[in-house]
Amino acid sequence: MRKNTGSLIVTYVFIAVLMIIYLFPLFYVFNTSIKSKTEYIQNTLSIASSFRYENYIEAFNRANFASFIGNSVFYMVVCTVLSIMMAVFLAFPISRNYIKFSNAIYLLFIAGLFLPDATIPQFQMLLKAGLYNTRLGYMLGLMGGGGIPLFFFVSYLKNIPRDFDEAASIDGCGYFRYIFQILIPLMKPAIASMAILSAIGVWNDVIRAIIYLSNKSLFPITRGLHVFTGQYQNDTTLQMAALVMVAAPLLILYLFLQRYIIDGAVAGAIKA
Amino acid sequence: MKSLWFKKAVRLVSGLTIVALLSTAVACGAQKQAEPAATEPAKTEAAKETDKKADGKPVTIKIITWAQQSNIDPLNALNAKFSEKNPNVKFVIDSVNANDYPTLQQTRISAGDVDIVTGFAFDQVPQDYMKGVDKRAWQQFVESGAYLDITDQPFLKNWDPAMIKDAASYKGKVYGINVGKVGFNGVFYNKKIFADNGLSEPKTWEELMNICKTLKAKNITPFTGAAKDSWPINMMAHAFIAANEPDMPAYSKGLWTGERKFTDEGSMKIWNRVEEWSTYFEKGVAGIDYSSVVGRFVAKKAAMMPDGTWDSGTIDAAKPDFEYGYFCIPGDTAGAEPIQLAGKYDLQFQIYSKTANKDICLKWMEFLSQKENYTPFISALSMFPTMPDVQVSNKFINSIADKNKNFRLAFERITLEPKGVGQYAAGVFPLTQLKAFGGTIATAKELAELQQKDWDAAVKAAK
Amino acid sequence: MQATKTSFNKWALYLGILPAVLFYVVMNLGPSIATFVLSFTDITGTPGVPWKFIGIANYKEFFFIQNPRDTMMVLKNTVIFCLLVTFVQNAIALPIAVVLNNKFIKGRNFYRAVVFLPVVLGVMVTSLTWLLMFNPTDGPVSQLIGIFGLSSNFFADKETALYYVIFCQIWMAMGYSMVINLAGLQGIPTELYEAGEIDGTTGNQAFRYITFPMLWPTIAVNITLALIGSLSSFQIILFTASGGLNIFTQTMAMRVMYFAFNLNAGMNTFSMRQGFGAAVAMMLFVFILIVTLVSHYVTNRREMEA
């Protein structure tokens, strides 16, 4: 595919416009977050004259971000580990057809994608169970059973030869030991992709946190940001500093693990 | 290659986890250190005395309210005073912005994670002539038994019986104490701009329109307003109704029974005035939200700002030396007295019925019911007191005392809309549907017709 | 159905799947079906309030008591939101993917990463970013269009707010469509293009006769994902165009949350009507089902023709 100069220029202009639409807003947010309040009011578009990191300190303290971040990491770790473990233990026998009704069980999980929204009864159930406004209740509501990790793992496991299973069981290796010591290391790339995607999902959740949590000390960071921006509607610079603090971990994660994230997203979509 | 990525991922995640755990630990440590300092006020001799008497068990009372500094600061002061007498009791106030407050209230009551619930008055009670209206949230809470019945508490006799009856009772039982009244049928005005242009508070509609014309001729924008949030403008309909419909309960009933129409002569007079008024707002009023409108007012972007009397505290905070006054939207003729306020009972406290600290909550209410504790509280709140013979020290409230001799409930507290009503009659008079306020309907006449149509359809469907 | 033989302990296998199955049935499948049941009740979100079965009253209310014009507007918004997001997102994501798949483009990995970034940043960050960009008084976009003598209230403008919301949704989710397209493009054998080059096909022809037909299954996946995703998404609406009675940006999914959890209800102090919310959720479910089936039928037929 050779390109002539004309179409190459058009292409680069197209890319340039795209980059402006995608990068300028993020730059503008960052620029606003390091301005003083008066500087912002005088000219919203000016480049910040200095890096006012006080905005960050103030936002961090006023919003009580330390506790929100702690909560978010806790939810992230627990939900991710549990949902990945559940998906692995379910995906393995299904992909190998080691249990009765493997296909039926698989279909049952696929059907979940097309059923009505479960939020209202879920809320009622957690309320009745006394799990409303608890960490456990929130995480139960947040964790998807099965879903994309299951589909992804099932198809991934089909590429891992069955010989491994048999060799292991002949060696007298127990089932759980086999999963943890042999299978999971073999599934590393798949697990990494799904774990990161699931962690990002937990970090970014705000709706479940609005519905299932009422106590500030339990809020994850995105919910904390929502409350903070509601309270300081006039303090644009502070708001943006808070926003950057929520986005920064994701950005760093993304910089390092870009390929896993994108691979996971693509695979999840196509397998599903 | 792939396993290298995986190792990186593991390292990063574990690194993040450690950072987070550390920060949580630091935060917890900091909290533990901060707590005693904040919650144990300097003990006076008298306090030490009560300390001995009280069982001394430390108790935390959770209060929820909406985030408005003019509410929270006085509440903190009151609580500090209570803690001084009862050192074992400390308070935690949780607040969100007003728009999210109904959700907080609902969720906290659902979770049983609250002791004292702030709310608005038990008004907008469905009348016999109203059919199929949705229950108000407060009614649902009372019926579900979320609020403690305080009918027999002796401290109730300290309060204005009208308040107990109109704001805090349901089916003959009392569930709360409403601490203050506010008016919202008027506008704040910039005293300096008025004086510079030789203007004074209007007594008739004509005078108000003349003020607007004078200001406009001098290139001063007459009004700013928070149309983005809808309600700050929509509530002003009630100012026009208060000025032009003296018998508001009859008007409400008439609209429900069909004796009155939104398109009849009386209603059209209201609509036409709203329309005329809407032409005097600053450009881009539809994009201004409630949290920034006061900033525009004190920055002299406009000479007047429609708002409730509760916002004087926000103005004071935004610009302490700012000179402003408040007048009500006038009707046709000037009376001997200034036009009177119409408004509502505002801040109300209820005790969550299943609280473990019932006695302390009641004690707190009793404390609030003492005149010496209530007076500084209500003065700081900048509302009209609901306790007889209380002399408030709030400058703004005293400056408009002559407008509060004959307090009336605003129309929106009297009437209710039928269930599922269309958007042109939602909230009964949705002024922000007018193009001038960011809506889609060009003229008041068109809007009134749509309003009547939506209203009729919903009233018919509800039967 | 017979299971494949294995020497692993059967009980261990079943014990392994138990948590996932139990969790799924209790937290997802059961509640999903319960939505249907609750739609025949007047249950509220307040514990302690008695509730009862009220037959089809909620559905009756949806069709007859709620203002029909407003209901139509919500349906219209849902359709506009869904169709515009799906088609614009894919119409832009396809050329972007084709361009960024081109080896001649320097730094294409960086561009890809940038376009995908908002997917990772999520809905809160996207909403707050664009609320700042679209600030009607002094935001950058407002100043930019001001040069041309235009002005807008963006999310506060009832007539156009929905389109700004749609823009945000596309900005946020387009990277997703792009990477799926890229994956599809990489699956097209390069021999096809080489053969085409020998035959003297132009770039346009190559796209029309090779790229597009070969990519069609991927595009179909993209379209289905965007359709379902946009029909059930409401977060972006909630965080950008808030305001109690603002029916101009309300979609079906938003309406469910509005009635069931008072989300976006503003100062409206009605109680949470979860029974009615469940009925609206069921209507949305039927809607999504129809759309999915139709889109499946259409994309399949296209595949046959191709």
Describe this structure in words.
The complex is a heterotrimer of chains A (272), B (463) and C (306). Chain A has one domain: MetI-like fold (Orthogonal Bundle). Chain A contains 14 helices and no strands. Chain A has helices spanning 5-33, 37-42, 54-62, 65-96, 102-111, 119-128, 135-142, 148-157, 163-170, 175-186, 188-204, 207-212, 221-231, 236-271. The longest helix of chain A has 36 residues, at 236-271. The two termini of chain A are 33 Å apart. The model of chain A has no long low-confidence stretch (mean pLDDT 88). Chain B has a 5-stranded mixed beta sheet, sandwiched between helices. Chain B has a 4-stranded mixed beta sheet with strand order 13-7-11-14. In chain B, strands 9-8-10 form a 3-stranded antiparallel beta sheet. Chain B has 2 domains: 45-182 and 345-399, D-Maltodextrin-Binding Protein, domain 2 (3-Layer(aba) Sandwich); 186-340 and 417-462, D-Maltodextrin-Binding Protein, domain 2. In chain B, strand 4 and strand 5 form a beta hairpin. Chain C is mainly α and 306 residues long. In chain C, helix 10 (252-261) packs antiparallel against helix 11. Chain C is globular.
Structure summarized in a few sentences:
The complex is a heterotrimer of chains A (272), B (463) and C (306). With 272 residues, chain A is mainly alpha-helical.
